[in-house]
Amino acid sequence: MALFFGKTMFKLLFLTGFLFVVLLRFSKKEESTLKFFPVFLCFFRLFIFFFSFFFIHYLHRN
Length: 62
Hints:
elongated; transmembrane; membrane; transmembrane helix
């Protein structure tokens, strides 16, 4: 189960990093993209927190 969690977290980190690179690549102005970077990080941290919470809840339930 921990291996599944590690693989899933790695995939999520890879996907979000890839999406951010694509966002940087196709943005017309770099300033506007960099302005949204803290917001992106905040949502990403919240997503990791909730994913971890539900995963731990699932482990305790079984």
